[in-house]
Amino acid sequence: MKIGVLKEIKNNENRVALTPKSVKLLKKAGNSVFVQKNAGLGSGFTDKEYRKAGAKIVKNAKKICKKCRLIVKIKEPMPKEYSYFNKENILFTYFHFASSKKLTLAMKKSKTTCIAYETVEKNGKLPLLKPMSEVAGKMSAIMGAYYLAKPYGGRGTLMSPVKNSVNAKTVILGGGIVGTAALENSLGLGANVVLFEVNSKRIKQLKKKFPKAKYKKSSKKAIEKELKNTDLLIGAVLVPGAKAPKLVSKKMVKLMPKNSVIVDVAVDQGGSVETIKPTTHAKPVYEKFGVKHYAVANMPGAYPRTSTIALTNATVPYILKLAKNDLNAVKKDKGLASGVNMHKSFITNESVAKAFGLKYTDLKKVL
Ligand SMILES: NC(=O)c1ccc[n+]([C@@H]2O[C@H](COP(=O)([O-])OP(=O)(O)OC[C@H]3O[C@@H](n4cnc5c(N)ncnc54)[C@H](O)[C@@H]3O)[C@@H](O)[C@H]2O)c1
After folding, report:
1. Mapping DSSP to helix (H, G, I), strand (E, B) and coil, where does residue 351 land?
2. Which of 231, 264, 268, 333 is catalytic?
3. What is the pLDDT of residues 23-78, one digit of tens each?
4. What are the backbone dihedrals phi and psi of residue 7, each rounded to the nearest 5 degrees, phi first?
5. How far is ligand 1, taken at its centre, from the CA of residue 178, in Å?
6. Does residue 125 sit within a domain?
7. What mean pLDDT do residues 291-302 have?
8. Is 352 in the pocket of ligand 1 (CB under 6 A)?
9. Distance 14 CA to ligand 1 centre (A)
10. Residues 108, 208: one domain?
11. CA–CA separation, 184 vs 170, rounded Å?
12. Which ligand 1 atom sits nearest the alpha carbon of residue 178?
């Protein structure tokens, strides 16, 4: 199969959909790979490395889409890119259709087969979202530790313990992928950690793996009791398909020490703290009630090289399947079929159709 990789044009997006190593794997399996000029630079991969791996470098994105059956990307197509795709393309990328009617209608019009990373399933989980949650979770402890420094507006507590001084305290809300990664890094830095979860089974698993932390059943009342001497609060909750529950009210934020830090990773689902509003990498923090708030909605964008490598290691097995069997791969793999949001103008994801009052069609009927 002919596979194309486009250079991302979304503001501040530096990830790329294939690494030179993944190009090599696809070439070995008998495919041709076309990479847009400078597509990997933001993640530290040069055209020379892609060429060496067997890719052809092409300047023009539109030409790549005309030539290739399968196009792999990172972000949803930008308006400038809408006209690049046609009914011969399978486009494999993050789409998040429900957040944009404009994008949904544009892709519908193009008749492209759209497979969304975020809805591909495996054993009831979302394997192509997981790597980015891990990056964001690990980052949350690092960002928190950084903004706790006095010159950056913080309380002046070092996350790593120092003999004869006080230990920093981190409170984590949620013990899923983000929460566990935050826990691992917070413990690694040496902080005292309290993690709140609603799922007792999850608490048991975490207790076994990370016995140094304290675990508590999540409730507003129980969280409130911990805030008085918290240096860093990390929001990592998710209720699938719903807005994040607001677990920390304004009143509770006011209880936190002056210049303590909140990193609300769940900000992309509305956030778990009442005073949170989304920020960007250009201006990541703001202050409210004397507490620093970090709320970047695309945290993995700060570390494109790590994120690209983690994401492509997760996507490449699916890309290999699509390259080998075309859309028969979707018929064979129910989890990959969950990723198909659109095919030949039919909307095959119920939530996307519902979001805009459009017609939903069962993929089995149109494939
Ligand atoms: N800001 C970013 O850049 C970024 C990057 C990746 C993920 N995220 C977001 O981070 C959030 C967490 O993602 P995840 O992959 O860890 O999800 P996950 O499903 O793996 O984990 C969520 C956890 O929250 C727990 N939970 C639900 N309600 C709770 C409550 N009331 N109190 C305590 N725990 C509760 C669940 O039991 C679950 O264990 C999501 O909103 C995700 O979109 C943001």
Report:
1. helix
2. 268
3. 999 999 999 999 999 999 999 999 999 999 999 999 999 999 999 999 999 999 99
4. -75, 130
5. 6
6. no
7. 94
8. no
9. 24
10. no
11. 12
12. 16
At 286, give phi and psi (nearest 5°): -145, 165
Instruction: Pick the last residue of a domain from 302, 323, 341.
Output: 302
Q: Which residue has the tokens 């429900």?
A: 98
How is residue 119 written in tokens? 């809805």
User: Does one domain contain both 161 and 84?
Assistant: no
- Tell me which residue range forms the domain holding 11: 2-120+304-366
**133 CB within 6 A, ligand 1:** yes
User: Looking at the predicted structure, is the pLDDT value of residue 9 above 90?
Assistant: yes
The predicted structure's pLDDT at residue 12: 83
Is 96 marked active-site? yes
How far is 86 from 89, CA to CA, in rounded Å? 6
Q: Nearest-CA neighbor of 321 among 13, 31, 14? A: 31
Helices (H) and strands (E) in the chain, counts: 14, 15
pLDDT at res. 158: 97
Ligand 1 midpoint to CA 133 (Å): 8
Model confidence band, residue 99 (pLDDT cutoffs 50, 70, 90): confident
Nearest by Cα to 182 from 134, 127, 216: 134
- Encoded tokens for 164: 């004869």
Nearest residue to 315 via CA among 329, 337, 336: 336
Q: What is the mean pLDDT of the chain?
A: 96
Range with the poorest average pLDDT among 20-29, 81-90, 236-245, 324-333: 236-245
149 plus 281 within the same structural domain: yes
Residue 240 has pLDDT above 80, yes or no: no
Structure tokens at 162: 């120092």
Smallest CA separation from ligand 1 atom 41, residue = 266
Compute CA distances 222 → 171, 183, 248, whole Å: 11, 19, 11
**pTM, 2 dp:** 0.91
293 is catalytic: no
